[in-house]
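User: Please run a holo structure prediction.
Assistant: Happy to. Please share the sequence and the ligand.
User: Here you go; the ligand is zinc ion.
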Amino acid sequence: MIGDMYPPGAGGWIEVICGVMFSGKSEELIRRVRRALIARKRVQVFKSHLDERYAGLYHVSSHDGRTVEAEPVDSPEQIARGLRGDTQVVAIDEAQFLQPGIVALATSLASSGRRVILAGADTDFRGEPFGPMPQLLAVAEQVDKLHAICVLCGNPASRNQRLIAGRPARYDSPTIMVGGEESYEARCRSCHSVPLKDEDQGMLIV
Ligand code: ADP
Ligand code: ZN
């Protein structure tokens, strides 16, 4: 069963929600934020690389009318600066894009008694560990790894398939692409394709 293990009076705590794109990380983060609001906690939500698609999604409301919006951030320092002294729950989405300093920040927030909830992709389009996620998984008290559905075969998906002009992106393309030319699909390990890593695809021109 996912989440909400946080016991009252236990002090600080780090939870990580990880998995591929479309696995429901943001949905789960929002569910936890909503329940924290119901519990009348003071909550702040941050999101790295805020993008237009999510503009409406991040108005999290509780039934008693309190609302929380995600604050867009580019760095762990910006989170630290934006933090209010009385905040009890800190939720951070798209944590894979943040610099390594997010690990020390999450640790110090938990040490100061806060509940820290981080959501992020644990692997990049190559299927390799993404940014600070391995360290965050290691220092967290609780980790949930979610899966999407493989769009090719219907099995649980654990990989992000990057496509450029409809074809699998090469292994040597950048981890974070600027410009939005690419698209992504959720795929399982056996349907996931990364040309140039697979020897037989060395000739592929993308
Ligand atoms: P994440 O934050 O992990 O990218 P979201 O919470 O934004 O995920 O989106 C999860 C939603 O995406 C699911 O509830 C489902 O409606 C939708 N979805 C689209 N494609 C898929 C897929 N291949 N597998 C599972 N869910 C998918
Ligand atoms: Zn598959």
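Helices lie at 25-38, 76-82, 101-111, 133-139.
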